Amino acid sequence: MTIRPRRSALYLPGSNARALDKARGLPADVIIIDLEDAVAPEAKALAREQACAALSQGGYGDREMVIRINSLASEWGHADIASVAKSGAHAILVPKVSTPGDVMMTAAEMRKACAPDHLRLWIMMETPMAILNADSLVRTARDPNARLDVLVMGTNDLARETRARITPGRAALLPWLATCVAAARAYGADLLDGVYGDFRNIEGLRAECEQARDMGMDGKTLIHPDQIAVCNETFTPDANELAWARKLVAAFDAPENAAKGAIALDGRMVERLHADIARRNLEIAAAIAGRAV
Ligand code: COA
Ligand code: MG
User: Fold this and answer.
1) What is the pLDDT along the chain (293 residues), one digit of tens a residue?
2) How far is 285 from 242, CA to CA, in rounded Å?
3) Which of 53, 193, 245, 256 could lock 220 by a disulfide, CB 3.0 to 4.6 Å apart?
4) Cα–Cα distance, 163 to 173 (Å, whole number)
């Protein structure tokens, strides 16, 4: 399976033509064109049209293009799916998902709309029910019919619905974030962190990116172009990590270690599982280096 770097995922409102155009030159791995909360009810149809027109016009290079639709329970959701199915996007991002049935129902709608197989399904993890159901919900990723590839934390909605406060360090959110990391890893999905709203505060953003990376997430969703550089930097394995990874892989590949599960390297005990992590870091770095954006 080829690894796809998803370090930075920039949201922009589908109603904002300037942002749609500007995204063609921004170094985000993923662009999420929003039709949901960033778009006012009276601009929904315009946003949908502009999003599809921008995709058919193209110019987004290697970026993974995702459209966040309105919930299927809203008056716009079904029309959104019908349009996005033919848009050439890589994935549909569905908000307010709470149960495995929500995933399968959306996938069924996609099939009905004749969505091509390569149009994937991403889901927001943003309701208290989604957290409680994380196991059964994300287990749907095992069913090829579900098309489920990526989970996106919706931390603002989660905070609103639970009445938790988002404080520096995000103590109240950590159990839910960690639950979603476990669900993603258990069923082979990627996981992207929620947004950092204080977009002029780059050091605050850096701390949150580091926290997400250290928890095991694959990247972070963003709201402003100024947030991309720090996010990409944080989620890219650095030179020291890569040097260590190469050394570790070489050590386990050496004939004298072929039968060993654990060895000493530079005064540290390392096991084969560390070599697996190292290999993944090398693959991610190679995939990032190969990107044209
Ligand atoms: N994507 C692409 N371009 C963006 C952008 C985004 N998310 N946010 C801002 N820009 C562009 C602006 O158009 C502007 O371009 P220009 O100067 O070349 O014309 C430039 O970046 C600087 O923008 P700035 O003036 O600093 O910000 P703003 O006041 O125009 O916008 C926000 C601030 C928060 C309204 C805007 O960043 C935004 O809409 N973000 C996304 C919100 C969203 O999608 N939320 C849903 C998920 S939570
Ligand atoms: Mg939300």
Assistant:
1) 678 999 999 999 999 999 999 999 999 999 999 999 999 999 999 999 999 999 999 999 999 999 999 999 999 999 999 999 999 999 999 999 999 999 999 999 999 999 999 999 999 999 999 999 999 999 999 999 999 999 999 999 999 999 999 999 999 999 999 999 999 999 999 999 999 999 999 999 999 999 999 999 999 999 999 999 999 999 999 999 999 999 999 999 999 999 999 999 999 999 999 998 899 999 999 999 987 65
2) 8
3) 193
4) 11
Q: In angstroms, what is the span from residue 269 Cα to ligand 1's centroid?
A: 47
Residues of the chain with CATH 3.20.20.60: 8-234
Q: Which fold has domain 8-234?
A: TIM Barrel (3.20.20)
- Ligand with minimal distance to 96 CA: 2
Quote the crossing angle between the two packed helices 77-85 and 44-57, to the nearest 10°: 10
> What is the DSSP track for 6-21?
-SEEEEEETT-HHHHH
- Minimal-distance CA residue to ligand 1 atom 24: 224
